[in-house]
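hey all, quick one before standup. I had two proteins in the batch that finished overnight and I want to keep them in one place so we stop losing track of which output belongs to which input. First protein below, input sequence then structure tokens straight from the run.
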Amino acid sequence: MSAPATPRRTAPAPTSPATPASPSAPPRGSARTGGLDWRVRFALLSVVWGFSFLFIKVGTEAFAPFQVALGRVFFGALALLAVLLVRREPLPRGRRTWGHLAVAALLLNTAPFALFAYAEQSITSTLAGICNATSPLWGMALSLVALSEDRPTRRRFAGLGIGFLGVLTVLGAWQGFTGIDAKGTALALLASLCYPIGWIYVRRTLAGTAGSPVAMTGAQLMLSTVQLATVSALFTSAPAAFPLWPTLAVITLGALGTGAALQMQYGLVTEIGPTTAQMVTYFIPVIATTAGVLVLGEQLHWNTPVGALIVLAGAALTQARPQPAKRG
């Protein structure tokens, strides 16, 4: 068991689009943070987040989309609150902090989690996972305007163009998007757009706020739980039954994919730094596609994996940092 974390002022770090972003991240350290090698934990994290789209699909078979999203944040919050209890670490304080966290919860949890759940009522988990991979593309497009430190470069513009060409390939644009549910795909892409908007908001309002990543994200998930509970009560009826597999899927999605996975990511960021840890993003659509095809029997046409590879190549280009000029 690790020592209790002490709240401190930290800067935001990137997180996977499949998960709620944390307003803060631990500083990189040289010591290992877990018993398993970081490569093993990296692979486990990729699998957990890649399977999230399968769990969403299974959950929507018995529950309304808002209820799937509610279960996700509720069990995720319970997992992180349990960690805080063990560490005897307090939640963040201050009305300003909680107000900004409420907006972050809306942008990074409530809206995208519900949108993905609605999307997977009409599209495959495979397509949802690939749509999720466009988040870095949306993020770069927005950051070129909203964040002064991300200046336009030829490489980044090329990455944006290549990435969105990959999206058109996945959707089969030359066939007139035949066989693709336009509404479901649009909802999944909109969910992916929510993440970079939320990240920009967090960077502008919560950077430097006192509090550990677990405390900040736990509070964020608590607020999202309240938001989704309110919406679910207003717009959905209580479930008539709790079938085993959909129920287990939602619990796993929250406790493992939204709670425990974040703990694993924090350990990776501490040990290997945010840049390498962020590379898990590029494995998520691969795992999501494999899970959808092998477990759910979803059909896979040639343009889906080819387009996904093009999307990931474009996303990688947009994230590339220019090399500093060498002094003679």
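OK second protein, same deal, sequence then tokens:
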Amino acid sequence: MSLKVERAGPLALVVDGGRQGVRHLGVTQGGAMDWVALGWANWLLGNAPDAPGIEIMVGGLALVAEADVSVALAGADLGATLDGEPLALAETVTLKRGQRLVFERPKSGLRAYLALPGGIEASAIMGSVTSTVREGLGGLDGFGKPLAQGDVLTPKQDRPSGGDRRLPRRDADKGQRDADREQGALVTASDGPMALSLVPGAQIASFSGTSLYRAFNDVWTLDQRADRMGIRLTGPQLEGSMSGMVSEGIPLGAVQVPPDGQPIILMNDRQTIGGYPRLGALTPLACARLAQCLPGTEVRLVPESPERARDDHLRQLARWE
């Protein structure tokens, strides 16, 4: 029931819901950057939303089925093919023994997710199997390494337990544009700047009025300097009364502003503490959308209340129940 890795790019990783409750030990969260897409791939197979799957980015991935096995795809369109024939997103597919499943380069979005029945067999480190390369934790080998040629992916179950689940075709085609869509995170941003909801933080009053106006009204561009640790925005220079502060814990999506005035959004593999003032933090749904945006994408920051952010988050989790 396994899949053998024939070829893997440098960013094909085992991911799940991440390591929770360990940041006081200096260990980062990790996990799927687009947790919504991973959740939908798992939902199609009847898995828990945070069951281990594969996150695939630039460099692609090629797998060969060693036996008949069902898989589900969600997230970005990386031109997935089965024996050379194109595959649709957000669907369950049964691979026959000897067939090749190949992901190439992004056509829309940035990160694709592959789920197997029950998740992927791997030993948990601090409660998670997610690969964190910088910390050397998780993955198939326990040391955080990306997938490599010869690795074997083994599902935890023989077959899917979710029955014949399908997503509405309009959502699989278009992706999510707001928290009320069924599909999940953004795949394309062709209709203008992507709105990213941000819950204002404790230091927001330290920024000048002009800077705050521009922060929430000007368009920002995603810089080339982007990875699983953080994504830099380029745009107006933000100014404030704080040049630094005593380091404190950094949540997912924190938007910190270093002395150059260009915000950095801290993502799953972020450092655990930081000493730059912050505008606040993106909501978890906004982080998932951001994870699918290519460098050069234009975005807007939109303030949102903690209550609304929580309601939207719970609404998404309820879709998988």
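Flagging for whoever picks this up: The first strand starts at residue 3 and ends at 8. Confidence is low (pLDDT under 50) at residues 170-189.
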